[in-house]
Amino acid sequence: MQTTATPTHCPYCALQCGMNLTPAPDGTVEVSERADFPVNRGALCGKGRTAPAVLSSRVRLTSPLVRSEGTLTPATWDEALDRIAEGLRRTRTEHGPDAVGVFGGGGLTNEKAYTLGKFARVVLGTSQIDYNGRFCMSSAAAAGTRAFGLDRGLPFPLEDIPRTGCVILVGSNLAETMPPSLRFFSELRENGGTLIVVDPRRTKTAEQADLHLAPRPGTDLALALGLLHLIVAEGRVDEAYVQDRTAGWEEARAAAMAHWPEYVERITGVSVPELREAVRLFCEPEAAMVLTARGPEQQAKGTDTVSAWINLCLATGRAGRPLSGYGCLTGQGNGQGGREHGQKADQLPGYRKLDDPAARRHVAEVWGVDPDSLPGPGRSAYELLDALGTDIKSLLLMGSNPVVSAPHAAHVEERVKSLDFLAVCDVVLSETAALADVVLPVTQWAEETGTTTSLEGRVLLRRQAITAPGGVRSDLEVMHELAGRLGVEKGFPTDAEEVFEELRRASAGGPADYSGITYRRLAKENGVFWPCPQDESADEEAAGAAHPGTPRLFLDRFATPDGRARFVPVSHRASAEEPDEEYPVLLTTGRVVAQYQSGAQTRRVAELNAAAPGPFVELHPRLAARLGAAEGDPVAVVSRRGRAVAPARITTSIRPDTVFMPFHWPGEGRANTLTNPALDPTSRMPEFKACAVRLEAVRK
Predict the structure, then answer these.
(1) What DSSP string describes 534-561?
(2) pLDDT at 564 > cutoff 50
(3) How much is the average pLDDT of 466-473?
(4) Nearest C-alpha neighbor of 212 from the set 202, 223, 204
(5) From the centroid of its chain, how far is CA 689?
(6) DSSP 8-state symbol, 473
(7) Using CA atoms, how far apart are residues 205 and 177, in angstroms rounded to an integer?
(8) CB neighbours of 460 closer than 8 A, spacing ≥ 6?
(9) For 201, which DSSP code?
(10) To the nearest whole number, what is the mean pLDDT of the chain?
């Protein structure tokens, strides 16, 4: 048995914190500090510290399961793989390739995400592939691309944050979602910088702020426009920067000037003096940043909302300059890489567009197929799930649990149940996997080698530290076996490094160019920032090491054809669903520190469950008094889509017109039963963060 420590990375959020793993004599795995990794410097949250608990055979899947007479029962790998191949083949034969859907996850490694996209398009011939990362940062990606010509979550490393002058943090509770990152903001304030937090709740993160703005959910767009109005009115626009490095200012300026401070105060509930103070704090230092997360992004106007915050940066010269810029705090462990290499409905590897003929030719040549054989763009994530059982008859799902995590979750559950055939690859029997016809147990982070890309755009090497149980195989092995059974004998290797070498070629010359990154290099360095093109003039020994990577983007030019950033004129509009007499309260959702995403893994860890045993409804004392609810009383939250019941948590840290629920649990407290699937017209992001509800007291 290996007893030395293996340096690797946490399986959870996009910080991808460094850690060391050491197998213990009793069969467990010990986590120890890895102080050399600059993002966390050894610090870990409770989720990272307890991550090995899910490796235990007591809580994870160790054998394939096949549904027989309505019950999932253990089966051999050959039996399970044959059953999946037959189900997918039958659907293609009877209904055509687009009747087969593929749904991936933001936790899959780059190698798995790349292979899944290739499998869907080459083996299955389907356009119907998307992934749960669509629910994470797609609005920020769309806004970043149209402003800068390129989307990378953060265009600078986290280490720049303490050295800037001011950060506006919009809709992020880092103290609970990414605890090790909070030190960058503490250091910012220690260095004399200021932190502005925008959140309808006074979260643990907001408590650290110099200024907390608490707008009504769904009004972040108006807030950003009101700040830009004041920047113009107070003469704080960097006119030279706007002229030299941007385009479209006059149209964006005119749109912002329609949002005068008193009007914005009525919409958002943020007072005019607070708006003016935010402008002063942001504009007075030489450098500043705006960082957004799911709060402003998970809206049916999320792309325009992010564009408004980007406009704020551009108007003040705070993008493409040292220690300044706009960034998105990507959520899932490989949410960044997952959207770069082919899981997304409209993308090919390297962040190439699926409808670009040149991109199709390049990738088809790497794959050894005819470009015309590649299907076009398919449905976005929610639209794909909504089509299950109607247009899409069979689904292959990897690393996601949409029955809990998707909006309008009860409806999604019914769509999943209506499928002719469902196959799920997962490490645990999630709520979605429990509905499958076949479930395959796959390896976890500590049992395999592969790469991920952090929220900084830093490509990292996760190293195998232990051997997986005998009944478990990797996702790469699954796709290799299925491809062979479906008539494609070559092109789906099981070795992760071999897959990565192909990914390098497929990404070469694309916006997310990984061609200069190798496993050997990643093993020597603490990650490499893309884009990192290969120097074709370098000899074989130096190949992949010549380019240093790009920690900081846009310092010389933006990634647009003319090198200029684009202002996008946007105007406030109401949320897709506003409160009314029947549903008078706003619901917003989010995470708690001890759980992660749908909770499929963290809910199986005793320490985390003790810290966060179940859902709750957070509400203001005035709202609780009107309802007649005391602390801990069961409260029903009802929307036009469903009903959820959870204990009341009464606090003055939330607005009186708003309630909050975490979304990690199934059952009667499933928050996403309530949420609105209204989609952003550009990003196709659902409106998780604002919907109209009413509250009902529940008799004990």
Answers:
(1) --TTS-TTTTTTSS---SS-SSS--SST
(2) yes
(3) 95
(4) 202
(5) 15
(6) B
(7) 10
(8) 9, 16, 451, 452, 453, 454, 522, 526, 527
(9) B
(10) 96
Structure tokens given for 694: 């009413």
Backbone angles phi, psi at 375, to 5 degrees: -70, 165
Q: pLDDT by residue (tens digit) across 69-100?
A: 999 999 999 999 999 999 999 999 999 999 99
31: phi > 0 → left, psi -120 to 50 → alpha, else beta; which? beta
What 3-state DSSP class applies to 326?
Answer: strand
Place of tokens 């200021």: 194
Q: In which band, very low, low, confident or very high, does the pLDDT at 540 lie, cut at 50, 70 and 90?
A: very low
Contact 139, 297 (CB under 8 A): yes
Judge whether residue 543 has pLDDT over 90. no
Element (H, E) at 147: helix 138-148
**Amino acid letter, 496:** A
Length of the chain: 700
Helix H segments across 563-630? 606-611, 621-627
Model confidence, pTM: 0.96
Which structure tokens are listed for 516? 């200069």
Dihedral over alpha carbons 308, 314, 316, 317 (to 10 degrees): 160
**Confidence at residue 537, expressed as pLDDT on a 0 to 100 scale:** 54
Q: Convert the pLDDT of each residue in 298-341 to its tens digit.
A: 999 999 999 999 999 999 999 999 999 999 999 898 999 998 99
Between CA 576 and CA 556 the distance in angstroms is: 39
Residue type, 681: P
9 vs 446: CA distance, rounded Å: 9
- Angstrom distance (rounded) from CA 193 to CA 188: 5
| Cβ atoms < 10 Å from Cβ of 577 | 21
